[in-house]
Specification:
β1 (88-91) and β2 (96-99) form a beta hairpin. This protein has helices spanning 2-8, 17-30, 32-36, 41-62, 64-75, 104-115, and strands at 88-91, 96-99. With 121 residues, it is mainly alpha-helical.
Length: 121
Amino acid sequence: CEGVRAAEAAKDFVAPLELWLRNVRDVYAKHREELDAIEDADARHRRLVDLNVIQQCVNVLKTGAVQRRRAATWAEGEPYTAPLVHAVVFDPKTGDLRRLDIDFEEYRDELSNVYGLYLVD
């Protein structure tokens, strides 16, 4: 992903690109120790792409729209369900679409006290 590659560069960009790149850079900062331990630049880049996709999927789960719909579904008497969010990475070199194996339960447990993920009265 060239956007992630741009975020890896120590270069300033103008809005709106800089706003998006800041999110990728935040992912890098969060996982800096893991990423800096990867010596191969291409492997480090691929891992940052994966981590960014994971973070963006978690961000979807944190949105108010998802939260409100989950609570409304519960209030309507529907069984407790979580939205299906699919973390996938497309590799333009190979044409492969790769599904990332993510345990979203772990993220929900970690973030529920901050974002109220799926808390229903």
